[in-house]
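Quick illustration, no need to memorize.
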Amino acid sequence: MFKRWKKSKKETAAPTVSFDQTEPSTYKIIASVFSDPGCVRETNEDSGRHFEPDDAELLATKGSLFIVADGMGGHSAGEVASRMAVDFISRFYYENSDEPQEALRNAFLDANREIHRASLQNDSLNGMGTTCTALVVMNHAAIAAHVGDSRLYLVRDSQIYLMTEDHSAVMEMVKRGWLSLEEARHHPDKNVILRAMGSHPEVEVSIWDAPFPVRVGDRFLLCSDGLYDLVEDEEIRHIVTANDPSSACAILIGLAKERGGHDNITVAIVSLVPKDEPAVRQAPTTRIVEVQQ
């Protein structure tokens, strides 16, 4: 379930990690996106994708886009909502001629309207919605936007930083001092979110107020709550640091499933490596992952 969040003009979610603003080294991106239905759900209502334009000029001006969405609404509606979010945001972002931050924000707003419109036109989709978290990496910088409680982490210098703030009931309790973060993790209402794309014609999008400088060695992880509900941040840090993106995605999903896998699990890992580093063969992006022992 989710309820409407009171709309305001704009909200920004600013990163809290410090960084060196000197010119970063040249890098290339190695990324993997895995999604798994988990051990309980019959269908996978998550969607995750990596977009990289073939056009060199578009890639230079708009960068590479990574999205994770966690749908809700019952039956096939959640799957439809998350897939629509991924499809529309990627399309609208690259079609928009505004600077990247505004283009990403507008892509979220336009996608929200499309999802909401679809929910009104088909009774089987009525009430559907989705969380969504998106990351763009371009020109030695990153931008991000999100709605709901799917998350974005940064692993840098063997430390892990949560770069988004959950739009959830328990996070509001934490902010008001009513719960600790550990208490929130095990609270019965931990999965009640206060914002979702598609539930209403307008939605408030959290977006960084400035590009975030990146550097070689940075690793970003986007995930649905099916991962972080069952795998601690420190475990995420260790696994992401010790493995290539493809292996890390598989290990993280396998660990969540070992612990019950009560929800769909989606993980996207983006690694910035030296441009001259030898290529590592990556497993293909897939909606269902079999973890090999």
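The chain is about 30% helix and 25% strand.
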